[in-house]
Inverse folding.
């Protein structure tokens, strides 16, 4: 079972803006426990992806402090994995799946790459060009890249956005399996309320500011969601678990 | 239907076996092992180059391809005993290796215009060399690197599109170069040599400079090919995989600027970017992997230089232009092969 003794991520008074007139993130303070699954929700343009990128160190905050595994984000890079929402690859770029994984994680032994490709049913695509893969296949490769080095924290930005309904279920099962296997922290951006209800230990509601922060039971209420999305929202909960 | 599949599989098997034997003979140790498909590509490139030379010769001589080819071969062997042509060949091989290797990352990053810009801007360096009595080659390297750094910095500090920025800087530097050259009275052989390249005028000093720089750049490219590939693919991924993206980007601009100016001696300001762009584009058409693209690109570059030197010597044509034409023949040959492969 994951240990939850201390925070994996601590954010204090975080602000980020493009110029003085367009604030994207305002005064965000929160912490995410080690070994938990935290899901960030919010309307379009609420700063979810920007928040994730700030946590990853890809964007420098305007002010405030961030600690990832007790380190500044740039120094925590070897211990985190990332699965982006979109991976804009030039389809003529002649890199193969194996070359891409090898170059992304040079310290990982070749046998582990092959194991993951086998495990995710991608071994036949080992020598395929990355640009020739379908959306679902590419997403699986990106997940492999994200978890190859057994990161302590895995960041996922709407990871199932390019996958069909059938593939989506398999995809989340895989993420959950890896989470149980490695006992790592997962920070995910998602629009899907059912995903949040099923997987999240913590929900962060973001709309430039941190609107709410708590367990799905506390957060997924019509009142909170109305506050977050600015529209009246009804929540129906099924009795049976999927 | 079954017959057709069987035929295809047999044909594929044969081609794989043939190529597997070939690739270990031709490739340097760092690139082994290489897949059979890549071997097949190399064989294809070799075939194109020899076919080109033979057909060219046959057209000019009615004795028939066999006798003409042996006559031509003897001529070429004799020619390469000449010291000036040996120097030209060595310098050409060094540049035929590093320009296409670096060109792989240039084409993948869609930076072909950068090569054009640096080459044209280096004319100011040539002019400074001519006016001050400095070696124009070294002053061109200095100006080329300076313009490369300016492009790098302005790309990051302003919102101007990179192609517009390169267009402004290279036109400005070219104009300054032309004005500076107009201040120097009399015949200016350096100008013609730098504009169109003249590999046959390469002296021992040039050869040493080209060889040392090429060897260093080649080692750097081998060592840092992972970083350069990741940068070309996706900057965020590169950063997250532990690469210092800004530092490597800067470093890439510097070695690219130096390599382009080195190539000016071979192909001239006007044509240098051809060897940076055409061989990688040729290899990209057929390569199944990045590894294949790098190896194929260098092979296409070296073949273009060797074939270009030989043809230019035999037909008494400008060397730089013939090298570029040979590279273009390989490119269109590969393009035809790709079209045929797709349609079959």
């Amino acid at each position: 079972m994951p240990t939850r003794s201390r925070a994996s991520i601590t954010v204090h008074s975080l602000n980020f803006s493009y110029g003085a007139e367009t604030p994207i993130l305002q005064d965000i303070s929160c912490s995410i426990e080690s070994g938990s699954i935290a899901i960030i929700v919010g309307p379009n343009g609420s700063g979810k992806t920007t928040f994730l990128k700030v946590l990853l160190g890809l964007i420098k905050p305007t002010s405030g402090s961030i600690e990832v595994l007790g380190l500044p984000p740039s120094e925590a890079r070897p211990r985190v994995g990332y699965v982006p929402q979109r991976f804009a690859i030039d389809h003529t770029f002649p890199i193969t799946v194996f070359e891409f994984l090898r170059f992304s994680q040079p310290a990982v032994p070749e046998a582990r790459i092959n194991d993951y490709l086998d495990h995710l049913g991608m071994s036949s695509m080992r020598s395929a060009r990355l640009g020739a893969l379908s959306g679902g296949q590419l997403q699986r490769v990106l997940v492999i890249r994200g978890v190859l080095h057994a990161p302590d924290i895995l960041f996922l930005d709407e990871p199932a956005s390019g996958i069909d309904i059938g593939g989506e279920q398999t995809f989340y099962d895989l993420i959950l399996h890896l989470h149980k296997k490695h006992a790592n922290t997962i920070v995910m951006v998602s629009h899907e309320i059912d995903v949040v209800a099923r997987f999240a230990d913590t929900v962060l509601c973001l709309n430039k500011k941190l609107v709410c922060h708590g367990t799905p039971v506390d957060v997924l209420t019509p009142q909170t969601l109305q506050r977050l999305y600015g529209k009246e929202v009804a929540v129906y909960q099924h009795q049976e678990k999927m | 239907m079954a017959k057709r599949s069987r035929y295809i599989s047999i044909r594929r098997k044969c081609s794989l076996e043939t190529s597997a034997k070939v690739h270990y003979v031709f490739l340097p140790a760092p690139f082994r092992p290489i897949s059979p498909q890549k071997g097949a590509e190399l064989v294809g490139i070799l075939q194109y180059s020899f076919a080109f030379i033979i057909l060219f010769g046959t057209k000019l001589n009615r004795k028939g391809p066999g006798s003409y080819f042996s006559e031509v071969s003897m001529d070429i062997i004799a020619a390469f005993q000449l010291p000036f042509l040996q120097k030209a060949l060595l310098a050409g091989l060094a540049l035929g290796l590093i320009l296409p290797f670096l060109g792989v990352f240039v084409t993948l990053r869609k930076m072909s215009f950068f090569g054009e810009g640096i080459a044209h801007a280096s004319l100011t360096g040539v002019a400074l060399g001519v006016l001050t009595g400095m070696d124009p080659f070294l002053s061109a390297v200095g100006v080329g690197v300076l313009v490369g750094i300016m492009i790098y910095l302005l790309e990051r500090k302003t919102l101007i599109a990179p192609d517009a920025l390169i267009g402004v800087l290279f036109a400005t530097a070219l104009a300054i170069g032309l004005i500076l050259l107009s201040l120097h009275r009399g015949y200016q052989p350096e100008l013609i040599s730098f504009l169109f390249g003249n590999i046959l005028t390469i002296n021992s000093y040039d050869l040493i400079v080209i060889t040392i720089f090429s060897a260093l750049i080649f080692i750097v490219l081998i060592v840092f090919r992972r970083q350069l590939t990741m940068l070309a693919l996706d900057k965020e991924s590169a950063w997250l995989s532990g690469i210092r993206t800004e530092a490597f980007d800067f470093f890439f601009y510097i070695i690219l600027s130096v390599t382009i100016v080195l190539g000016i001696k071979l192909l001239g300001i006007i044509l240098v970017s051809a060897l940076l762009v055409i061989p990688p584009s040729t290899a990209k058409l057929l390569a199944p992997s990045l590894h294949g693209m790098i190896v194929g690109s260098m092979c296409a570059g070296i073949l273009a230089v060797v074939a270009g030197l030989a043809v230019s010597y035999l037909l008494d044509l400008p060397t730089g232009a013939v090298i570029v034409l040979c590279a273009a023949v390989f490119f269109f040959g590969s393009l035809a092969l790709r079209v045929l492969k797709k349609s079959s």
In short: The beta strands of chain A are 7-18, 22-33, 37-41, 63-68, 80-83, 153-157, 185-189, 202-207, 209-214. Confidence is low (pLDDT under 50) at residues 1-5 of chain A. Chain A touches chain B through 26 residues (CB under 8 Å).
